[in-house]
Amino acid sequence: MSQIAINTSQNVNINFNIASVGERMLAFIIDFLIKVAYVIIVLYLFFNILDLGYLLEGLDQWSIMAVYIILTFPVYIYPVVLESLMEGQTPGKKLMKIRVVKIDGYQASFGDYLIRWMFRLIDTTAAGVVGLISMIVSKNNQRLGDIASGTAVISLKNNINISHTILENINEDYIPSFPQVIALSDNDMRIIKDNYTKALKVDDRQIISKLSDKIKSILKLEIDSRKMTERQFINVVIKDYNYYTGKEN
């Protein structure tokens, strides 16, 4: 399985397994079936349960088409909305344990998901052949939407995944210090802990200092260095995140 090295904001590479074309296709099929089920249910409710079919009588072809578009609108925005809400996943991707991530190491934004969604018009051309060819020939199995948005789809079926490296042992009587950590995502914490662990191994004080400053900036915290060292601060942040999100070993 091919891998991709994602460069974090602290200039540290983390290797992830690239989701295979097969995994992405199966995720697409699962999502497609969910959308088909939605359309069937909505149309059944509209015509059979609510018996609103009479509303279409006397309407011209364009008006009827507009009604159908309104009824099935959630199907069209399904990918961009769910990827935004589920941090790069749809139900299909979640079941296949794959996720959309930014290659530069940052959390993908709504804008990134929107670009991927807009390029679906091209990627699905000729029954999806364009997107399929793009994934096969590109280095990181990227379709055109991924290339345009600077994203890739990774597999979480390995030893390095989005949540594995954020786990931290905490005692039952642990008292957190920074409730602001709830503003961080699992992906943010994975990057923080992974970079911190690497820096500790080689005693890279510069990376530790930059990482500490970055966390303080994001969480808008001011810490007295005489009371808490940078290493102590990062350790507390990691434990606090585990405390508030319930991620314990």
UniProtKB/TrEMBL annotation:
Subcellular localization: Membrane
Principal location class: membrane
Organism superkingdom: Bacteria
Residue stretches making up the RDD domain: 19-150
Record key words, sorted: Membrane, Transmembrane, Transmembrane helix
Membrane topology classification: Multi-pass membrane protein
UniProt keyword Transmembrane present: yes
Transmembrane segments: 25-50, 62-81
Cleaved signal peptide residues: none
Matches recorded under PANTHER family: SLR0254 PROTEIN
Name this polypeptide is given: RDD family protein
